[in-house]
Design brief:
Blueprint lengths: L2 H16 L4 H11 L8 H18 L1 H5 L3 H28 L3 H20 L10 H13 L7 H11 L4 H27 L6 H27 L4 H17 L1
Protein name: Undecaprenyl-diphosphatase
Main location: membrane
Organism: Candidatus Woesebacteria bacterium RIFCSPLOWO2_01_FULL_44_14
Length: 246
């Protein structure tokens, strides 16, 4: 893999991890529709995710330092569904990564969620409670299907519960930390590493970090302005194309 490829993959990871467009869906489409595209090694994938995880830590560092025990409990509760679904259905879900049509249909669902997110009414002052955390956690669990955006699903679930947009996005991003960390550790232990040079890892990591920070800011900005319809239109278009080509 070249430095340019590492840079491009890092940029794609950074942007699509947080924008509500499904990073896994874009990876499947790239693998199946772009000539000459090769799946990066497991270690490289883990390092890209480390870059986006660090982006969350940097962006929300003040929030992380001030988390209450109650909020940590809510994050733990919200992480349970993804852990259970990932453990029970990981092999089934892996099989879906070869289907462009599945991704296309899932992207249409993501599009619908993005459109609806703009329309739901938030309740001023409403905080995340245990039942809210479970609902958002189930949304995150279902989003292991390629094409279903994790951020789009969880923000949709949280705002549908009446949670303020800013708080919904914050809970969504923080909830992704244990989920993504656990999934990648499992992936690495299951499939092992690869032998790319350190420069490729560094380029991919930094690209994922920088563009991850950018995509967090963009997502929060579009959400607050009720402009998720832009991502809805994008997912609708890509989903229809994927179904047609699949």
């Amino acid at each position: 893999m070249s430095l340019i490829s590492a840079l491009v993959l890092g940029i794609i990871q950074g942007l699509t991890e947080f924008l509500p467009v499904s990073s896994s869906g874009h990876l499947v489409l790239a693998q199946n529709l772009l000539p000459g595209f090769d799946q990066p090694g497991v270690l490289f994938d883990v390092i890209l995710h480390a870059g986006t995880l660090l982006a969350i830590v940097i962006y929300f560092w003040k929030t992380l330092l001030g988390l209450s025990k109650n909020y940590l409990v809510l994050l733990a509760v919200g992480s349970i569904p993804a852990a259970v679904v990932g453990y029970l259905f990981s092999n089934f879900v892996e099989g879906l990564f070869g289907s462009v049509k599945v991704v296309g249909v899932a992207l249409l669902v993501t599009a619908a969620m993005n459109f609806i997110t703009d329309m739901v009414k938030e309740r001023e002052g409403k905080k995340v409670k245990v039942w809210d955390a479970l609902v958002v956690g189930f949304a995150q669990a279902i989003a292991i299907i390629p094409g279903l955006s994790r951020s789009g699903s969880t923000i949709f679930a949280a705002t549908s519960r009446g949670i303020e947009r800013q708080k919904a996005a914050e809970f969504s991003f923080l909830l992704s930390v244990p989920a993504v960390l656990g999934a990648n550790l499992l992936q690495f232990s299951k499939y092992g590493g690869d032998s790319f040079g350190w420069s490729l890892y560094a380029v991919g990591f930094l690209a994922a970090l920088v563009f991850g920070l950018l995509s967090i800011k963009l997502t929060l900005s579009f959400l607050q302005a009720k402009n998720f319809k832009i991502f809805g239109a994008y997912c609708l278009m890509v989903g229809l194309v994927a179904i047609f080509l699949g």
